[in-house]
Design a protein that fits this description.
heterodimer, A: 127 residues, mainly alpha, two-stranded antiparallel ribbon, two-stranded antiparallel sheet, B: 325 residues, alpha+beta, Four Helix Bundle (Hemerythrin (Met), subunit A), 2 domains, five-stranded antiparallel sheet, 10 helices, elongated
Chain lengths: 127, 325
């Protein structure tokens, strides 16, 4: 039984000596990211709240990107996708990404349309 | 590519079966099938949450004004406890990887220890979630509902803090008691009455000039709209119902859908964690009994580990979309 773990993260910038060490390294990284998220959520810097990018607050973009970063390291190192064959990895990762992007796109557009109907239409609901 | 645990069957024969083009065993592939489909289910929930939220983008409750409690401590601590829960779950994910790693090296005792720690982490998380639900259902300030189904909350004008109904409502003796089944027709009863009637809250509100009404509408600064005293006096006339805490029909935090999605999404996730803990316990005892030692490999630990990490992965998304964004 051979144990070939890929032990480098951050595209080879950080290399670990053993799999156990890599696990602790990833934990430290995930904890830092979570701490940043919570700190930003409590402070809510005015610059990030006031400015928007494609209709969403910069702060929310940061939250979503940090979440995807966390998801990447959980899947790659905890679920050891990094060590699987690339064909398996792609089948697992791209299927949901494709389907979920489509779902989010279509639902959020529809929701925004309904929001405008409620706002400009003849139905009064906020009273 | 035998980087993860192999279960034997090394010889490859194109037409003779036993091929493993993806380099993973049958069991592991099936676990991945399940995880991908479950991920799509959760995505459906979170996307529908996004749908409802975008629909009511101007009136949706602000999460860090709702989840402000920490067990055993009084005060306003937005997000702290949820962050702690996230950390616990990530931590139990780490002990799970360590258990898989120990199983990989056929170290039985280490695997037992790490599985035990994983179970403890999962139990703490489920317990925290139960506490969170209880706090959410109980509510803390209470609110009024208008005839349009909107929530009116109360704020103290001098400090800007939230005012609980108990702070200002007037006690008016009344004959109104909860309708029990034995008092009327056998099929008509009602759930328990709120602590105050609308009239008591309204009278108390009129008597105390320090109380202002806060509506659901979010201003450009990202805060809830605070009415002036004059506006509040007109607004209170619309009140029809006292709402305390949350149930599936109405809640004191704002939009009705908010509580429904809270119960549904965190409930579904909590159920996953609960079943994960149960499966972990089964595996834990199997390791102790030496089942995998005799089998020659600890692949079961790895498969359950995949499920456990998936539960953690889902929580990372629930945390972001329910509590942070």
């Amino acid at each position: 039984m051979s144990h070939e773990h890929k032990l480098a993260i951050f595209r080879g910038t950080v290399k670990f000596k053993s799999n156990t060490q890599k696990i602790w390294g990833v934990l430290i990284f995930l904890s830092i990211v979570t701490t940043i998220e919570v700190a930003l959520g409590i402070i809510k810097p005015q610059v990030l709240v006031a400015n928007t990018f494609i209709g969403m607050k910069i702060l929310n973009w940061i939250f979503i990107i940090l979440t995807l970063v966390k998801a990447y390291y959980i899947a790659w190192d905890f679920m050891h996708l990094r060590d699987e064959k690339s064909s398996l990895r792609r089948a697992i990762v791209w299927t949901p990404i494709f389907l979920v992007s489509y779902l989010i796109f279509i639902l959020l557009f529809e929701a925004d349309y309904i929001y405008n109907v409620f706002k400009d239409g003849f139905i009064q609901w906020n009273f | 590519m035998d980087s993860t645990i192999t279960t034997g069957a090394e010889e490859e024969n194109v037409w003779g079966g036993g091929n493993r083009p993806l380099g993973a065993s049958y069991g592991k592939l099936m676990m991945w099938f399940f995880i991908v489909s479950d991920a799509l289910t959760f995505s459906g929930f979170l996307a529908s949450y996004g749908f409802s939220r975008f629909k009511f983008i101007e009136t949706w409750p602000i999460a860090d004004q709702v989840f402000t409690h920490v067990p055993f401590i009084h005060g306003n601590f937005p997000m702290y406890y949820v962050a702690f829960m996230t950390f616990i779950l990530i931590m139990s994910s780490v002990t799970m990887v360590l258990a898989v790693d120990a199983g990989h090296k056929m170290m039985k005792n280490k695997a037992i220890l790490y599985m035990f720690l994983t179970i403890i982490g999962g139990a703490i998380f489920v317990g925290s979630q139960a506490w969170e639900w209880a706090t959410f259902i109980k509510g803390d300030y209470g609110a009024l509902e208008t005839k349009g189904g909107r929530i009116l909350q109360f704020v103290k004008a001098d400090t800007g803090e939230r005012a609980a109904l108990a702070d200002f409502a007037k006690e008016i003796p009344s004959e109104r008691v909860t309708l029990e089944r034995n008092d009327a027709l056998w099929y008509s009863s009602e759930s328990s009455l709120p602590s105050y009637t609308v009239n008591e809250v309204a009278e108390g509100f009129l008597a105390d000039p320090n109380i202002l009404i806060r509506t659901e509408t979010i201003t450009a600064e990202g805060e809830k709209t605070l009415l002036t005293r004059e506006e509040s006096l007109t607004k209170i006339k619309d009140a029809k119902l006292v709402v305390e805490g949350a149930n599936l029909i109405r809640n004191e935090y704002g939009s009705r859908l908010f509580a429904d999605f809270f119960f549904f999404i965190t409930g579904f996730h909590g159920f996953h964690v609960f079943s994960g803990v149960v499966i972990n316990i089964i595996i834990f005892f199997n390791i102790i009994l030496g089942t995998y030692e005799r089998r020659g490999h600890y692949e079961m630990v790895e498969k359950v580990g995949l499920y456990w990490h998936f539960v953690d992965l889902v929580w990372v998304f629930v945390f972001t979309f329910f509590y942070l964004v």
